[in-house]
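Hey,

Quick one before I head out. I ran the complex with MU-OXO-diiron overnight. Inputs first:
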Amino acid sequence: MEIKPNVYAVGAIDWDRRLFDELIPLPDGTSYNAYLIKGSEKTALLDTVDPTKTEVLIDNLVRLGTQRIDYLIAHHAEQDHSGTIPDILTLYPDAKVVTNPKCRGMLIDLLDIDQEKFITVDDNETLSLGDKTLQFVYIPWVHWPETMGAYLQEDKILFPCDFFGSHLATNSLFVDDEPVVYEAAKRYYAEIMMPFRGPIKKNLEKIKDLQIEMIASSHGPIYDKPEFIINAYKDWVGDQVKNEVVLAYTSMHGSTKKMVEHFVDALTQRAITVKLFNLAAADIGKLAISLVDAATIVLGSGTVLTGPHPLVTYAAILTNALRPKTRFASVIGSYGWGGKMLDQIKNLISNLKVEILEPVIAKGHPQNEDFTALDRLADEILAKHKELEIT
Ligand code: FEO
């Protein structure tokens, strides 16, 4: 499909994929976007597709009558975009892989591509295709260190690879349902980019002087109103948190659940929004989305084999890895006869720059004093949120 004169989307939609990295849920599938630019003198292919979709990319190139590819632009070494490079180099043996030095090294390591095949480019370097010019922009740490984007100067299209992308399978070439794309893009940001808020802020700063009419990421539909996703990213990477508590818990015999129910009620009475996740059935992606904005996270767990329930351990490890801008944390839960559940959870979230608020741990079934302590914790959260002026 042509997105601007002589600029074509040639990637693949993956309607059925449900997991990425065997970890990240993809409830709406995804796409691996690749773009073919036919300049008056040279032809460039921007990225390839996941190796499971090689035939789709090749079919699309054939249907466009692509006799020759001069440049294969590799923005990022991860295999969902680079995995078909070896097949393309076999079909188009004159093509040179254009990338930055760090990505070149990673592509050699990951895909065993011949060193002679590469042309490396510096930040802001340009590459002429005749009547079209690509300007490369390094945008490191949109989860890997080597990623770059390309700006097509004449058509004012930014190709930023994963940056601004969304895991969303759709045959709409352009964004046609902003709320749906917003959630998919936020999920993607939350799951892989949130730990790199600092570098991403710098990347946003870096592209701000480009005149961008379209953003064509490597996942999801193209943004023909780029301010929609740029403004969303500014909000997500900003320091502001919201009057929200993410409460992720599991309960084996009901004690922790009773505490959770009381606590949700206490927070509701204080007009604090609760994002509640029963980890036995939760979509971890939605938990990640909630962590983007929440001022406070509370983990709820019973005690299993002297420690937290493994599902809570998993949520704590994930939260620790995602390093949200959350400001406060606490733990609620129960135990039967002892254990180190509380200390272990605190250790698991040691990356978070949070103030730990006094936990509430009940011995067995929660008693009146435990419910009173939960009210006290809700009061403390409200007071902390008021200090931040977010209530
Ligand atoms: Fe879509 Fe980091 O690859």
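The mean pLDDT is 97.

Talk tomorrow,
K.
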